[in-house]
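Propose amino acids for all 772 sites.
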């Protein structure tokens, strides 16, 4: 309260008896409604008042925060409150903030009552200024400053400008652990998120940037390290953070008391065991004399809970009771409280605005009305993730009110795009200009079926394909797929012989599940193939056409086995997939040949992160003729080199070369081979400036591979039969992939490591608007 009038002071000092009020007035109100102001002071006509009541009214008015000054006058039984209102906020700007988003700052200001239209409260703004400063200090920005400027505006308003200089993050110069005898500083800090300046090999690493939260996590990591090595008496006595004078260098000292490691003396079980004790003991892989490890204990507790969960005791509670003995040994007691068996009353799906409940329900291995089991719930989650329709799948059990033996299973998903309509213009180093149009929907009408139509035209090929796949043609999970296609290829470049190839076909496939991740697929395709050789064909293609003709109708039977547990859709983040296939142009076809294929890949998380991954993949293929067909038809040959194969070498340029007659002006080109071997190992890592890692991926890679033949044409002059692993080509490089809303985009920078004379190499390769 700033001012109380002299009249009121005199009234208070002289008058000790309450006096009735004939009228109450409030002068100076602009923003606060008068009705609210009268409610605040609580005076009514004819009501007696005294000094205490006036003071209460003044305090209540100041408490609203609307007023900077209040005078009170009494004249002829009329009490007048003269108020000066604080200005309102007419404009609010925030500048200089990068680490903390503007919308987050404005949200915090709004919760504190600071936004355009609200009353300007200096004390609240000061608190927010101090809190912002504290947040930047916690982020290691000790040089950060937060300045607030206030400027008057017309109509009793002010302009509030918050100017932030975030400064630079203080760098960790040295981390010193004091008191450690059993382990070196390097052993103790190797899993720290914090690191000394210049110690990381990763140029994008922020490990040397100090953060209070990051340091606290490192102290927890340090404690876990000692507890995992048996040091039950370990204690962090203190941690100090020192700053250099310019606030740019940080020195961290952690004082520890190690104690002695404990070994296990005895292990026992307690509590009620509704299942065989032997099943529980199978989960306990500790023994007397082992060094105590907290992480090992946590794993055992999880395994015991999962074992009882698989018998319906879903809410089992397992606790460890350690008893430390004088000789640095410990007795361990696993106390088990299983609770009642639990059954699933209902399974409730949410978040699936497009996908039908039926599509999700058929993937569930946990059923309604059945005993709730841990393994079936986890298997259901995995199957839903493998669909590729959802970016996130969460399964939670919820007790049914009023019961002890029933739960509802809540399945919450976040849907992601499962289809696209594409009209694109692209370019690739191998196919030149590409025009494409396609409609693809992996979850057609929410049914889980896949419908696709694609039309693609490049400088050397034209493809049209219509396909439809029903993964649940029968309730048992038998799938059925149908496809019609037309392919026309006109090879005319420096790497592949010039000829034109047209294919028209239609096929039908049926797939049968043999396990949760494995499937066997049978198919049959009728294919019409036409060949049109150039004016100066190679000796091999000319010999093939002279012997077999240039038009073929073949019935191609196929069988394949696949085992896939990939998670993450187009850009997987975990799991594996392996497939083996056999295609046979059956007897009675114009051509009789077979092709065997094997493809496998696997992803591993690095440090339990979906952003840092290790990925390996390999592909092998073998084909040949049989019966009256001596060779694998040349148009069915395998090729290697380029994107999706051995990067750094030109597309389809590796392997056996064809031959030309002595009077030909053509140079030898790649003709492919009937044996394929390729492999890739890569480390996938996030770029710091990229936020959407679900559609953008970067990696460094090592590629290897080549194409060979074991059946040279009799007319060949450049052919060498057999597989020589010394002829494998290698390359290393950097890859960047972006799944754009229009089409995939891929860039590769690669270096061929062992290019031989005659090899065609490409340092830079990219694709846009095509599937890779």
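Proposal:
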């Amino acid at each position: 309260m700033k001012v109380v009038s002299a009249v009121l002071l005199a009234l208070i000092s002289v008058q000790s008896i309450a006096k009735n009020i004939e009228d109450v007035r409030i002068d100076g109100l602009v923003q606060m409604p008068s009705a609210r102001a009268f409610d605040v002071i609580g005076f009514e006509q004819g009501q007696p008042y005294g000094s205490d009541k006036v003071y209460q009214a003044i305090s209540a008015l100041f408490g609203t925060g609307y007023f900077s000054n209040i005078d009170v006058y009494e004249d002829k039984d009329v009490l007048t409150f003269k108020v000066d209102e604080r200005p309102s906020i007419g404009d609010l700007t925030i500048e200089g903030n990068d680490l903390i988003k503007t919308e987050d700052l404005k949200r915090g200001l709004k919760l504190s009552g600071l936004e355009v239209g609200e009353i300007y409260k200096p004390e609240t703004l000061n608190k927010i200024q101090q809190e912002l400063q504290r947040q930047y200090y916690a982020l290691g920005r000790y040089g950060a400053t937060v300045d607030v400027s206030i400027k008057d505006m017309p109509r009793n308003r002010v302009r509030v400008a918050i100017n932030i200089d975030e400064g630079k993050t203080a760098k960790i110069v040295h981390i010193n652990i004091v008191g450690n005898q059993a382990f070196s500083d390097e052993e103790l800090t190797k899993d720290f998120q914090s690191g000394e300046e210049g110690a990381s090999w990763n140029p994008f690493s922020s490990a040397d940037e100090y953060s209070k939260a990051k340091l606290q996590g490192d102290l927890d990591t340090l404690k876990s390290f000692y507890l995992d090595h048996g040091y039950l008496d370990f204690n962090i006595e203190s941690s100090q953070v020192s700053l250099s004078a310019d606030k740019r260098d940080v020195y961290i000292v952690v004082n520890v008391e190690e104690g002695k490691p404990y070994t296990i003396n005895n292990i026992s079980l307690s509590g009620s065991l509704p299942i065989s004790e032997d099943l529980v003991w199978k989960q306990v892989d500790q023994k007397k004399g082992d060094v105590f490890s907290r992480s090992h204990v946590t794993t055992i507790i999880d395994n015991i809970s999962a074992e009882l969960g698989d018998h319906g005791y879903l809410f089992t509670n397992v606790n460890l009771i350690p008893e430390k003995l004088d000789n640095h040994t410990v007795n361990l007691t696993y106390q088990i409280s299983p609770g009642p068996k639990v059954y699933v009353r209902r399974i409730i799906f949410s978040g699936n605005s497009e996908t039908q409940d039926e599509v999700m329900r058929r993937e569930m291995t946990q059923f309604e009305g059945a005993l709730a089991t841990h393994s079936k719930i986890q298997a259901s989650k995995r199957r839903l993730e493998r669909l590729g329709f959802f970016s996130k799948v969460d399964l939670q059990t919820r007790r049914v009110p009023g019961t002890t033996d029933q739960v509802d299973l809540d399945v919450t998903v976040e849907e992601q795009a499962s289809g696209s309509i594409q009209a694109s213009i692209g370019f690739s180093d191998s196919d030149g200009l590409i025009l494409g149009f396609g409609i693809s929907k992996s979850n057609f009408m929410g049914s889980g079926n896949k419908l696709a139509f694609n039309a693609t035209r490049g400088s050397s090929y034209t493809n049209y394909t219509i396909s439809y796949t029903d993964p649940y043609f029968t309730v048992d999970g038998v799938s059925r797929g149908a496809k019609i296609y037309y392919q026309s290829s006109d090879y005319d470049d420096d790497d592949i012989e010039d000829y034109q190839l047209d294919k028209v076909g239609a096929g039908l496939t049926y797939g049968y599940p043999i396990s949760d991740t494995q499937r066997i697929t049978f198919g049959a395709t009728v294919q019409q193939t036409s060949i049109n050789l150039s004016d100066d064909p190679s000796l091999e293609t000319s010999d093939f056409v002279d012997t077999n003709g240039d038009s073929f109708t073949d019935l191609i039977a196929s069988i394949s086995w696949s085992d896939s547990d990939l998670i993450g859709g187009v850009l997987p983040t975990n799991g594996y997939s392996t497939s083996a296939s056999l295609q046979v142009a059956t007897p009675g076809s114009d051509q009789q040949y077979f092709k065997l294929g094997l493809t496998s890949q696997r992803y591993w998380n690095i440090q339990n992160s979906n952003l840092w991954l290790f990925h390996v993949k390999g592909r092998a293929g073998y084909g040949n003729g049989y019966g009256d067909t001596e060779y694998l038809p040349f148009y069915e040959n395998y090729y290697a080199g380029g994107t999706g194969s051995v990067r750094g070498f030109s597309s389809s340029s590796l392997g056996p070369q064809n031959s030309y007659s002595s009077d030909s002006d053509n140079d030898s080109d790649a003709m492919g081979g009937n044996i394929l071997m390729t492999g890739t190992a890569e480390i996938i890592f996030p770029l710091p400036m990229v936020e959407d890692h679900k559609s953008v991926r970067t990696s460094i890679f090592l590629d290897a591979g080549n194409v060979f033949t074991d059946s040279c044409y009799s007319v060949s002059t450049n052919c060498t039969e057999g597989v020589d692993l010394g002829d494998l080509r290698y390359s290393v490089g950097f890859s960047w992939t972006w799944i754009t809303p229009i089409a995939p985009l891929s860039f590769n920078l690669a270096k061929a490591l062992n290019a031989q004379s005659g090899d065609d190499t490409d340092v830079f390769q990219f694709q846009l608007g095509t599937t890779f």
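Confidence is low (pLDDT under 50) at residues 1-17, 421-431. The chain has six domains: 6-85, 88-165, 171-257, 263-337, 343-415, 419-768.
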